[in-house]
Amino acid sequence: MIKIRIKDIKVRSIAVPIRGKLLRVAGEHPGRNVFTLVEIITDEGVTGYGETGGGGFSLAPLIEKLKDQLIGEDAFNIRKLKWKVASPITATYYNQLLPQIWFPIETALLDIKGKALGVSISNLLGGLLKDSIEVSAYIFPTEDTETVEDLVTNAEMIVRRYGFTSIKLKAGVFKPEHEIDVVKALAEKFPQAVFRIDPNGGWNLSQAINVAKSLNGIRIEYFEDPVWTMEGLRAFKQATGYTVATNTVATRFEDVPNVFLRNAVDVILGDPHWWYGIYGYLELSATLWSLGLELGMHSPSETGIALAAMLHSAAVIQNLGYAIDTHYIYLEDDIIKRPFNIENGRVKVPTEPGLGVEIAESKVEKYENFYRETGDYPYQGQKDIVTIPKLKFRNCKCHV
């Protein structure tokens, strides 16, 4: 029996520049995203990589404290190591942070196992069902897209460049009337596209219902968290008949029975980051399949390391019914030697051993230094989002 022992673990924080300030209902991504990298080194010289983050804070201090539990253990015994790091009682205390801590560790372990055996992670998980994954456009308002025309022009450049046929609009930044106009204009520009609308729970129920009824005739894939709370989503779904997706009211396995019994949502947007890694995402897939709920994939933002993990996850699941989300198009740079290409709205799944990506060490060092210079930032960013509409947006119907 093959045994490869964990010799050392390195945890590094990086900040990667993104294209502009991406606005959302509770603030902004201020020109950079923070990621935490995990490098696991074995006594056989095989090294694996994982990554988590995408928000404003590094998780390095928390992951550093787990090293003593992992060093010396068999890197192939992934299920045992998950129990050591992410047991149910630990999950009670760490809640949503714990899966994000476990995800890069598991990814690195799978990367090691695949490299040691000479197979891709997809093959470790049973083999590819699809060799490329459909991706949705992710359209954010920015400081430079103040009007309907500005946003549509920006969306057109993105959609034409990458060939997207599914378009996700980050809503909730402006008043609903403005965003209705945006969706209608986008639908006129892209009549063959389907749309998903995500205000991050920023509308009240009457606003959300009004938006939905105002968009009759437009090809809406789903509304993602149009309102807050599980009961609010149930009421919206009942009132409008639209498909409802969430990545807020169902973030743990314990939540799934509740949304099912209440008939609150149709689609749960999971991802390996929030659902205990790739294996956790497969478990979510099976759970939803048994209940007749649909599966999507959420993106908290990722470099090529986590995107590779997402692609492997998506490639082996039979009931992923929607194009996956990704912020990848907004990265100014990547830390892998061969960045992913999005062509005709799809990304090819890596076939090389392990994750199938090679780390560019010089880039990691560069963005480690950038993180040291810029540091963390509050994900909420409420001060910025209050200031910007009052001073910057001229003619749109903005939140005040």
From TrEMBL:
Signal peptide: none annotated. This is Mandelate racemase/muconate lactonizing enzyme C-terminal domain-containing protein. Pfam families: MR_MLE_C (PF13378), MR_MLE_N (PF02746). The lineage of its organism: Archaea, Thermoproteota, Thermoprotei, Sulfolobales, Sulfolobaceae. It comes from Saccharolobus shibatae. InterPro entries: DgoD-like (IPR034593), Enolase_C-like (IPR029065), Mandelate_racemase_C (IPR013342), Mandelate_racemase_N_dom (IPR013341). Residues 148-243 form the Mandelate racemase/muconate lactonizing enzyme C-terminal domain.
